[in-house]
From TrEMBL:
Organism, as annotated: Clupea harengus (Atlantic herring)
Identification of the protein by name: CD276 antigen-like
Span of the signal peptide: 1-22
Any one biological process term the GO annotation gives: T cell receptor signaling pathway
Upper taxonomic lineage: Eukaryota, Metazoa, Chordata, Craniata, Vertebrata
PROSITE patterns: IG_LIKE
Keywords: Disulfide bond, Glycoprotein, Immunoglobulin domain, Membrane, Signal, Transmembrane, Transmembrane helix
Broad class of the protein's primary localization: membrane
Amino acid sequence: MFHQHISSLFIVFYLYRWNGAAFEVRVPEKQVVAVHRSPAILGCTFTPPPTLQDTVVTWQTVADQRVLHSFYYGTDQLDRQSPEYKNRTSLYHKQLLSGNASLRLEGAGPRDTGKYLCSVSTSQGTDKAELQLSYAAFFTEPQLSILAHDSTYTLQYESEGYPEPEVRWTDALGKNLTHSTQVLQSDENPNLLKLLTYVVADTVKNLSWTLIVVNHPLGQVIERPVRLFYDDQRDHVDCSRERLALLCPVAFCVIGLIILFWGRTKC
C-alpha cells in the first residue's frame, strides 16, 4: 500500500514536470536588426493555449524592465506601458491562439537598441525568452564634391546612414589610400549619421580612385569609382595662346618704333 502511494506521487510529479516542460517560449532569432523607416518585428512564439482568457503576454526591456506591451484578460493592457513606446507597439492578436506573441515596433532608432524579454503565461505554464535588437539604416547615394586648390585636388563624398561604416579608398591597383573620415550626427534626422570622407590628390594625371563604404549590419556595400584626367593638349594650347597674347603687344610696339624711325630718317 505504501509503495503504491509512493508510485502515485511519483507519477503525479512526473506528469507535472512533463506538462511544465511541454510549455515553451522561443524567439526565432536571437539577433534582430531594426531597419530605418521599417517596422521592427520582435519574433516570439509559445505553446498554443486553449484559450486567451488565461493568457498573459508581456514585452519588457531586460536592462531596466520598462514595459513595451502587455496583454491579458483577452485584450491589450497598456496602463503600465512606458511613455516612449506609446502608439509604437502592437501584437498579432489573430495569431495569439496559434502561439504567436511577436511584437511589432514602429519608428525604431538607436535609442531602441538593447535586449528585450518576451514573457508568456497560460494555463499550461510560464516561460520567457530574450533577444538582442540593433538598429541600422542604409547609407544614401554618396554625393561627390571636387575642391580645386593651387596645386592639389580634394575629392570628398558625403552620405547618411547608420551605424558608423567601414570606409576605404583604393587606387587603380586596389591599394588602400590615406584618407580622412568624419562621422557626425545628422542635422536633419536624429536616427542617422552623416559620413564625410575625402582624399587629397597632388596631381590629377591618370587619377583613378574608388570609394568603398561597407554597412556590416545590413550587408550593404557601396563602391563609387572616381576618374580624373589631365588634358596635356589643352594645356599646350592654353600656353600657346598665353604666349601669343604676350607677343602681340610687343610686336606692335616694335613695328611702331620702326615706322617712327623710318619717318624721321626720310625727313
